[in-house]
C-alpha cells in the first residue's frame, strides 16, 4: 500500500481554527499566533473521511510509505525506516528505534522533512544538530540527491561527527550561539530547506512529527490494542507529540476506542516541558545544567510537548543521568544497548512507579554506539592469559 | 507462527550419509570424516515432509521464531532479529543487516546458537571474536540469563570492545595464538558452550548457519521470487552457506523453481575459499596480509563456503580494501553507512561486472560505527563561522 497523501493543509497549534495551505511548510512557526516569547508550531491536516481503514490491515513492516494516506507527500526513496520491533522487557515493552537506517527514530522524521525539501525544489537541507538528527537528515538528503549542511557543536562525540560526515554532508562545528543565526542565513541566502528549529520556543518543521505517527500505528498493530501508557525520551517533544497524534487518529478513525497516557521523559538538568506544565505556560525555555544525555538535553521546549502530556492525561517526568545510566545498563544486560538519552523512557517509567491498566511501552530511541565516551577507552592485551583471568 | 522445530538430527558435510542425533551439537566438526588437515562441519536435518507451506504466507518481519519449523529449537527470547529491509540501490538490492538488534547479521546466528547453549544446560557461552560475533553472542547470552566470555585480540576498535562489554560479557584481549587454546579450556573445564570455531579448518557451531537461512526466506518474500545472484561478505562463509541452504529449501519445498548463484566476497589479503575453489580442495588455510576489513579477514576457511559457491554455480571474488572503501563510500552517499567489511558484497558485484537474468542482492552486514578508526578523529571548532565556511 503506497497511495496518495490525503494531507490538505497546515493548522496552527496556537489556534486550531487558523489554517494554511500545505505548501510551503511554515518552518518558522505560526505567523498569526506566535509572539516574541512563544512560537506556536503547525501541524498537518488530513481529509480523514477519505482514509480507507484497510490501511490498518497491513503488517507494521519497514518503509513508512505504507502509511502514505496519513503522511505528507513522500519524495525521497525509502531507506527502509520503521517496522521496528516491540521487545518484551521486565513486564513492559521497549520499542527499539535503534533499528532504523541510521539507528535512531529520527529517520522517520527525516524521510518526511527531506521530502518537503524535494517538493520545495531546494538545493539542500540544513540542520543544527549535534547528534542523530543531523546524521539522519544527511542520510536522507544523500538518498534524495540533495546537499546537506549540518551545524554541530563541539560537545558531540567524534564518532557521531564522523557519522554525519560519512553521508557526504558538510559538517561544521560552530559555537552554540552561532548555530541558529547561521542556519537562518543558509535558509535565506542559499535557499536550503531547514529541517530543524528556527524559533524562540521550539516549532521545528511542521511535517516532522507526522513521521513519528507511524510509531503509534505500529504499536497498535503489534499489541493488537493501544497501550495504556507511552514513555518517550523527550528533547523538543516532536517524538512525543507525533506518537500522540498517531493514537488520536486511530481513535478518530474508529479503529481504537482509547488513547494512551503520554509521558515526557526529560533530563533533570533541564526539562522545559516539565516547567511549562508546572507553570501553566504554553512552552518554556529553561537554564540547562550538565547532562551526558546530549540527545535530549536542551533549554528550549515547545508547545507540542505540553499538548501531548496535557491532552493525554500524562505527565512530564524528570530523570537524572544516574537514573538513565541505570536504565541503560539494565537494558544492555537484557541485550539492548541504548544511547544514554535512549534509555530515558525506561528511566521515566521507573521513576514514576505507577501501575497501569494495560500494556506500557517505553520508546528506546538510539544505539549505544552514539554515546559520549564510547571508543575512548582502550583495553590492555593480556600477555599470558589463564583460565582464572576469564572468570 | 511460532511452532515446533522439525529438526531431526545433524548430518556430516564430509559424507551426507553420516547422521548424528540433534543433540549434543557437534561443535568440533564431524568426528568421522574430519582429518588432521580438513575438518568437516555438520548441518541440521529436518523432516521437510511435515513443513506446512503456509509458513511462507506470512510477512518477512522481525523475530526469526516465525520460521521455527525450519530452525533448531529456540530457547532464548527474541531481541527482534531479522525482518531487515531490502533497499534499492543503483539497479540492485541491498539487504541491510545493520538493522538487527546488535546492528549486524550475527544476531540471526546467535539466537540459534545461544539457544543451543540453553538446551545444553551450559552456564555460559564462550566465543573468540574481535567484532560483531562476540558482541552479538554477549547480547543473546544476556537475554538468556547466561554468562559470556569473549576472547578478543588487540586489533579490534575500542568502540567495538566497549560494545561487547556493554552487555555484561567478560571481554579479554589476548594474543591471537592464545585464543583457540583458551576457548577449548573454557569449554572443557568450565562447561561453557562454544559459539565459535575450534577446528583446523572452520566448522563453527553446527546450528549457526540455520539462523542465516532466514535471510533467504525474507529475500524470497520481499522480491516475490528468488534472486539471480547473491553477493555476501565472506569470512568463514557461515552466512554464505546459510543463505544458500535457505534457497535450496525453498526449491525442495516446491515454493521456488530456481536457486541463485552465490558469490563469496572475500578480502584479497586472504581469501581461503577462493583458494580452496581454485585448487579443488575441500577447504583451505592461507597466509593473511593486512586488511582493515577485520570483520571478514581471516586465514581460515571452511568447507561450507566451497559447497555454496560450487553447488550454486557461483564464484569466489577477491576484493581489495580500496574496492571495499569505494563501495562503502558509494553506499553512504545513498544513505547507507556500512562497516568496511559490510560493503564487500557490493564491491564483489562491481568487480565481477556481470549481467544477471534477474534481481541481484548484495548483503550489507553491519553498521559503519564499528569500523576501524571511527571516533579517533576530532574536528576543530570554527570560532567565527561565515556562510562561506559552509559551502
From TrEMBL, chains A, B:
GO terms for biological process, alphabetical: isoleucine biosynthetic process; L-serine catabolic process; L-threonine catabolic process
Keyword Lyase part of the UniProt annotation: yes
Protein name: Threonine synthase
InterPro entries named in the record: Ser/Thr_Dehydratase (IPR050147), TrpB-like_PALP (IPR001926), TrpB-like_PALP_sf (IPR036052)
Annotated signal peptide: none
Protein species of origin: Nonomuraea polychroma
Annotated keywords: Lyase, Pyridoxal phosphate
Essential cofactor(s): pyridoxal 5'-phosphate
Molecular-function annotations in GO: L-serine ammonia-lyase activity; threonine deaminase activity
The keyword Lyase appears for this protein: yes
Amino acid at each position: 500500500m503506497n497511495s496518495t497523501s490525503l494531507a490538505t493543509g497546515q493548522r496552527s497549534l496556537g489556534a486550531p481554527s487558523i489554517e494554511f495551505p500545505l505548501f510551503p511548510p511554515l518552518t518558522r512557526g505560526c505567523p498569526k499566533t506566535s509572539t516574541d516569547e512563544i512560537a506556536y508550531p503547525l501541524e498537518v491536516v488530513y481529509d480523514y473521511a477519505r482514509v480507507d481503514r484497510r490501511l490498518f490491515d497491513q503488517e507494521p513492516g519497514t518503509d513508512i510509505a505504507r502509511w502514505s494516506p496519513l503522511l505528507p507527500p513522500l519524495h525521497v526513496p525509502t531507506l527502509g525506516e520503521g517496522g521496528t520491533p516491540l521487545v518484551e522487557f521486565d513486564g513492559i515493552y521497549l520499542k527499539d528505534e535503534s533499528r532504523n537506517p541510521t539507528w535512531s527514530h529520527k529517520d522517520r522524521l527525516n524521510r518526511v522533512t527531506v521530502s518537503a525539501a524535494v517538493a520545495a525544489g531546494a538545493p539542500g537541507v540544513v540542520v543544527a544538530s549535534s547528534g542523530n538528527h543531523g546524521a539522519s537528515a544527511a542520510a536522507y538528503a544523500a538518498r534524495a540527491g540533495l546537499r546537506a549542511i549540518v551545524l554541530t557543536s563541539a560537545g558531540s562525540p567524534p564518532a557521531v561527527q564522523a557519522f554525519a560526515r560519512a553521508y557526504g554532508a558538510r559538517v561544521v562545528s560552530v559555537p552554540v550561539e552561532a548555530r541558529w543565526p547561521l542556519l537562518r542565513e543558509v535558509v535565506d541566502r542559499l535557499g536550503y530547506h531547514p529541517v530543524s528549529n528556527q524559533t524562540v520556543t521550539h516549532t521545528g518543521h511542521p511535517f516532522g512529527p507526522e513521521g513519528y505517527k507511524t510509531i503509534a500505528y505500529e504499536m497498535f498493530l503489534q499489541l493488537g490494542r493501544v497501550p495504556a501508557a507511552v514513555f518517550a525520551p523527550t528533547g523538543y517533544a516532536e517524538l512525543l507529540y507525533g506518537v500522540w497524534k498517531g493514537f488520536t487518529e486511530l481513535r478518530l478513525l474508529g479503529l481504537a476506542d482509547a488513547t494512551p497516557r503520554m509521558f515526557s521523559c526529560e533530563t533533570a538538568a533541564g526539562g522545559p516541558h516539565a516547567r511549562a506544565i508546572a507553570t501553566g505556560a504554553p512552552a518554556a525555555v529553561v537554564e540547562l545544567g550538565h547532562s551526558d544525555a546530549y540527545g535530549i538535553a536542551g533549554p528550549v521546549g515547545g508547545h507540542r510537548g505540553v499538548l501531548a502530556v496535557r491532552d493525554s492525561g500524562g505527565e512530564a517526568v524528570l530523570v537524572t543521568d544516574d537514573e538513565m545510566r541505570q536504565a541503560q545498563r539494565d537494558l544492555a544486560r537484557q541485550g539492548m544497548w541504548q544511547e544514554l538519552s535512549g534509555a530515558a523512557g525506561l528511566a521515566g517509567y521507573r521513576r514514576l512507579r505507577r501501575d497501569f491498566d494495560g500494556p506500557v511501552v517505553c520508546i528506546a530511541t538510539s544505539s549505544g554506539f552514539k554515546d559520549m565516551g564510547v571508543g575512548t577507552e582502550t583495553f590492555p592485551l593480556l600477555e599470558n592469559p589463564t583460565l582464572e583471568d576469564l572468570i
